[in-house]
Design a protein that fits this description.
62% helix; mainly alpha; 3 helices; 103 residues
Length: 103
């Protein structure tokens, strides 16, 4: 018998991945929080750039400042809720370095 016939004669088995539900939820929440933190930092840098260029009125600067502060507070609360430290959000991309800039 060749290998193809052997494979056909064996009952087909479905491959199953055994995953720990808690680990999957923890890793998924970490990934989502990482993406939110990345977007938060990008928006913050863009806001600072626009402020330094004088593209924003004083009122817009005030609103942006308050919004960014609230978003940072919300991120801190979410990290606490999901038991993730801010350092856990900085994924190591191997030779490319870390995803988020060091604080």
């Amino acid at each position: 018998m060749n290998s193809r016939q052997d494979a056909e004669s064996r009952p087909s088995r479905r491959l199953r991945i055994e995953a720990d539900r808690e680990a999957v939820e923890r890793d998924l929440s970490r990934l989502v929080l990482t993406l939110v933190e990345l977007v938060r930092q990008l928006v913050e840098r863009q806001s600072i750039r626009r402020m330094e260029q004088g593209d924003l009125s004083d009122e817009q600067v005030e609103v942006l400042g308050l919004t960014l502060m609230r978003l940072e507070e919300a991120m801190t609360e979410l990290c606490e809720r999901f038991e993730v430290s801010p350092d856990d959000l900085n994924i190591d991309l191997g030779p490319l370095g870390s995803l988020l800039p060091r604080s």
